[in-house]
Amino acid sequence: MSKPKRGPVLTGAHYLDGDHACAEGAIAAGCRFIAGYPITPSTEVAERLAERFPRIGGTFIQMEDELASIAAVLGAAWGGARAMTVTSGPGFSLMVENIGLGVMTETPCVVVNVQRGGPSTGLPTLTGQQDMMQARWGSHGDYEIIALSPSSPQECFDLTVTAFNLSEKYRVPVMFMMDECVGHMTEKVVIPEADTIEVWPRRWYRGPKDKYLPYAPEKDGVPLMIRAGDDHRVHVTGLTHDQRGYPIINADTQRVCVSRLVDKIRNNLDDLMIVKEEQVEGADVVVVAYGISARVATKAITDARKQGIRVGFLRLITVWPFPEKRIRELAGKVKSLVMPEINMGQMFREMERAANGQCKSLLVPHCGGWVHDPNDILKAILEGAR
Amino acid sequence: MNPNQLLGKRGTTDSHPMEGFLRMDRMPHIWCSTCGLGTCLTAFIAAAQESAIPREDIVVVSGIGCTGRAAGYLKYDSFHTTHGRALPYATGLKVASPRLKVCVISGDGDLVSIGGNHLIHAARRNMDMTVICVNNFNYAMTGGQAAPSTPQGASATTAPYGAFERPFNFPFLVDSCGATYVARWTALHVRQLTIAIKEALLHRGFSFIEVISPCPTVYGRRNRLGSGLDLMKFYHDHSITKNFASTRECDIKFQQDIIVGKFVQRDEPTFLDAMDAQMKKTLGAKFVPYVGPMDPARDMTESSHDSDRVPKPK
Ligand SMILES: Cc1ncc(C[n+]2csc(CCOP(=O)(O)OP(=O)(O)O)c2C)c(N)n1
Ligand code: SF4
Prior knowledge:
Chain B: Residues 66-211 form the Thiamine pyrophosphate enzyme TPP-binding domain. The structure holds 2 protein chains of 2 kinds. By secondary structure, chain A is α/β, with parallel strands linked by helices.
């Protein structure tokens, strides 16, 4: 009897931590190139791919630092690979310049940031959610980005696939904002059959070679891509460029170039916005949370409901762009919005801005190193219900 | 082919014989007249043609600076990246698409200062690529600041009383890190430079060519070295060709003799060769070599999407 042929996708039920689940998600999404530099608590993603790739036709390269890792990922993406890099806070800081290059050159790739507490070297092995604003605004200049935040190892798998799909669809580096707790938490992860996992193709240009305009947008604002070496003679630059990709340094070209980078995300919000809602209709208080904080908030919400409080739950999966519209709607209906996060108020500022004074906004801050005491969240819910 | 042949006789044609290899719709370029960068580009195009490598297999990557603009003028697939990161970008391209002949053309500030760490590691890995490092002894694009190549005693805007730091000896640096082809020529040595670039393109492994290039506008003027022509005259009088000289001896001192030549050429396994060999050794039949880049023709049918929207997780 011959063994059943195993594809690269690790179909079946597995006991995995978030980092390993993310690595498996990358494989399922068709990622075959990863460049990285070790940093806790993200290293397990790279380690798993270093082990898995040579058995499934992928390449792992340990670069000399994070600046090199992200640069290699951008190069690999133009070389025609689905590519990813993995890091944590300090490494993320080193990557931001080239994340900007990725945005400007519309290079699909995924940047995984398993967050730990900062600033600086901070808490190497302990959790934080303190890079949320950096994910949005880390690189200089004006741009829009997509960032997702998983709350469980299962989501680390599922959403890594989604992250790749969104990066290909919108041709933008997608930030995958995990946190140490989710990265190191081990749970059952169910991986479906390979052919049931939706993997988006790159947006290839297939027309005549000499007609190709690398930055001519399709209807949804996103241009089509080619591979280096396919004889299109394309020029790719981080300078402000026209549709041919040629640098043109003036205000008009800048307006066209930057508006499209921003609009291709802003005009497609409904498509890329993923949130999960629970009992928000008729609620007095809605807890808004993401990542590990969403798991912790569940306990506070259950306790509050036991006390008869009508609490809804809005879990953010797409964190950038921020689900501003939905928050604004909710803010018009509830007494308060409560947000626990493992920072001193980053996404909270966005929430408060979106709520626009229609209701109370309550932050439950945490400096990092551990998750919230659910009682602190409960207290905020009780206060919000008053 | 002799590069002079390629250039044709002056005045005999309306078009430049290298037009097909340049983005003519971007001309005029931003480089100053008598800058050495034009010569480097000419040598590159001539070498690429003579190498007979299929044109679409050659990709050019640059960092930032006057030299960094080279990628934008060459009609190849070309990548103008961030300051210092041309080499890791090129590494990603090469590893993702091993068929490509990846060439990096960039400045000495870009490759050796901000990108110094990448340079030593790309050399250590013997990453199969060609690096042309244009050394004009300063940071030209930002206006003539000191570079890791500025000779002691030379003046720069950030070394107004004369540079006193020890400059790098580039050939020695990359040689000691494991580069497998190392040469240095000046912008005057068009023939030798063209031959060197051709050899480097055909070399399997990390090849590094330093090109000493005149920057009359900032370095030359500040140091009162005269016009571009005077700088070329200096190269003529002060270059000493010494093939296979010990790279240790190749220091450059302010306005003194410059040792040029091909210094290193050796065969060593490249990054990809070494990776393949090690994986085969440890994994045997379980090793599945990298399948290469996604194929536009097959990508659509292999993927399983059927709607217009990116699927959202349940
Ligand atoms: C991160 C970063 N730092 C600084 C700069 C500014 N900058 C642009 S070109 C350049 C120097 C380039 O010098 P070199 O590589 O020697 O090239 P040259 O202009 O001399 O050809 C610098 C510092 C930049 N673009 N990016
Ligand atoms: S400033 Fe110097 S290096 Fe730059 S184009 Fe002018 S002469 Fe060449």
